[in-house]
Amino acid sequence: AARSSPADPPAPPRATGRCHQLFISWALLSSLPQMVGVVGLEIHAQIQSTSKLFSGSHVRFLAPPNSLVSHFDASLPGTLPVLNRRCVEAAVLTGLALNCTINRKSLFDRKHYFYADMPAGYQITQQRVPIAVNGMLVYSYFEGRRRNQVVTKSVKIKQIQLEQDSGKSLHDDERSQTLIDLNRAGVGLMELVMEPEMCCGEEAAAAVRELQLILQALGTCQANMAEGQLRVDANVSVHRPGEPLGVRTEVKNINSVRHLAKAIDYEIQRQMEVLQSAGKVLNETRAFDSKSGNTIPMRDKEGLQDYRFMPEPNLPPLFVYESEASVPAGVDPAQVVVIDRLSGQLPELPSVKRTRLVETYGILQEHSFTLVNEDGLIDYFENVVQTTKAEPRKVIGWVIKELMGNLNSQNLNVSQSPISPCALAELISLVESGHISSSTAKQVFQEMWKAPEKTVGQIVKEQDLWMINDKEELQKICKRIVDSHPEEVQIIRGGNKKVLNKLMGEVQRETKGRTDPVQIRAILEKMVS
User: Fold this and answer.
1) Cα separation of 225 and 384, whole Å?
2) What single-letter DSSP state applies at residue 401?
3) What are phi and psi of 55, to 5 degrees?
4) Are 110 and 122 in contact (CB under 8 A)?
5) In Å, how far are 113, 230, 264, 386 from 250, measured between CA atoms?
6) Positive/negative CA dihedral, 322, 325, 326, 328
7) 529 residues of the chain, pLDDT tens digit each
């Protein structure tokens, strides 16, 4: 063997035994690709309907306990389900909006499991042939340092199925008892199953927010998560790209978009740490604790119970028809669900609205998201634009910064704004016409907010906020400022032009912002030159 020269670096010591195994293990780990999260969602959306899925009982949030329960909801012997056509139409509309294939024939099944708040001991669902399959949801979120770079992605919708909700168990720890409220039992749900194609909490939250907006636009679900109208289960696993998916955990019943993002990101990090420490991820159901920000185990899913799915014997196949021409003879088209008729009822969806706003008004894409996300804000913005001659890009600044800033600080929605679109348009028009300055207009806006009964003109007149346009008066004001700041004038004449901004600030302070900065700068520059 060749002898090492003195210039050669010394060979590393040879690892032996357990140390050698660890050395190889760490070398292998460092060469492997990073683990990534994999997220799929199951979303239960409460159908916006006046009655339940299979009974005539009313649906109303916060009704007195057990006041909205029919004989069928209580599973009394001899009662039979009667399908609510409104619920079927809602599911078809939702499927069309999400680019799903609508099954012309779907089937109902029984899913057996015991819950104290499910009197029948089974749930009627659509396991074998759901009403809609193979859809797509396109969603967007922002990234970048300033959160203004739009990233658009899509996730496949595996299926949409109709099913019953359960009742509600209310646990009384002081008396060691559980109370059952069956008002919710039998309420119609759409379960939307999203394929595991997302990678983090931010993506999942963006997808759910977009789905909320779509459902609200369609009128098929109010999607108020705080009232349980939209409940999300997240299936989370981690793996290295190119390898099979890891063991998944299910985080159940997440009731806000913010909590969803936090729960998923925590669970991804937890699973990575378990695997990196040579542990094993368990197939289990977990819950999200919003106070600690952690997920906690609920029950083991290794021994998955047999739901004993079987065809629902009391419900025939559900048929929907492509067009009125395809409805069988002798059947009244008004009494069946027709896809073409529902397609004509599809409203302008959120993604289309955003594109229209950007193309029509030339606003930034991120501003279009704000307009669409806030209920009633598009109408408010368009009313202001139509009433004033100001450019839409100037109007959007007032709507997003001033209006939404005040609404958010007081936890109000757009319909509760004390300033009407016409009043804001009048204020913006005064700025555009040069009657008041933009800084003065912001003061007036706050006064309008406090005293909505007063008009813009009244406030401006009472506080003497009209713009000073008289050239002689402006000359006198600037002369006083220049004479009272000799040191600053010398610095400016010495070449430091930035100090001129201080003199401009003094003029603005003395006039309470009632001057045109461009005009003042020109006068001051001439005086100190």
Assistant:
1) 31
2) I
3) -145, 170
4) yes
5) 18, 17, 10, 49
6) positive
7) 344 444 444 444 444 444 444 344 444 445 567 999 999 999 999 999 999 999 999 999 999 999 999 999 999 999 999 999 999 999 999 999 999 999 999 999 999 988 888 999 999 999 999 999 999 999 999 988 877 789 999 999 999 999 999 999 988 888 889 999 999 999 999 999 999 999 999 999 999 999 999 999 999 999 999 999 999 999 999 999 999 999 999 999 899 999 999 999 999 999 999 999 999 999 999 999 999 999 999 877 654 567 899 999 999 999 999 999 999 998 998 899 999 999 999 999 999 999 999 999 999 999 999 999 999 999 999 999 999 989 999 999 999 999 999 999 999 999 999 999 999 999 999 999 888 888 889 999 999 999 999 999 999 988 888 888 778 888 888 989 898 998 888 888 888 888 888 898 888 888 878 888 888 888 888 888 7
Q: Classify residue 265 as left (phi > 0), alpha (psi -120 to 50) or beta.
A: alpha
Burial pattern 13-30, b for ≥16 Cβ within 10 A else e, equals eeeeeeeeeeeeeeeeee
- Report which secondary-structure segment, H or E, holds 377: helix 377-387
CB count within 10 Å of CB 106 equals 21
Of 55, 47, 134, whose CA–CA distance to 93 is shortest?
Answer: 47
Q: How many residues does the chain have?
A: 529
Q: Which residues contact 444 (CB under 8 A, 6 or more apart)?
A: 427, 436, 456, 459, 460, 465
What type of residue sits at position 246?
G
Tokens standing for residue 461: 């007149």
Give, rounded to a whole angstrom, the gap between the first and last alpha carbons of the chain: 86
Structure tokens at 79: 């009662």
Q: Which of 125, 102, 105, 103 is nearest to 113 (CA)?
A: 125
pTM of the model: 0.85
Q: Would the CA dihedral through 50, 324, 313, 88 be positive or negative?
A: negative
List domains and CATH numbers for the chain.
36-311 (no CATH), 350-463 (no CATH), 471-528 (1.10.10)
- Side chain identity at residue 452, one-letter code: P
How far apart are alpha carbons 334 and 238 in whole angstroms? 50
Cβ-contact 309, 111 below 8 angstroms: yes
With CA atoms as reference, report the closest residue to 399 among 375, 382, 387, 416.
382
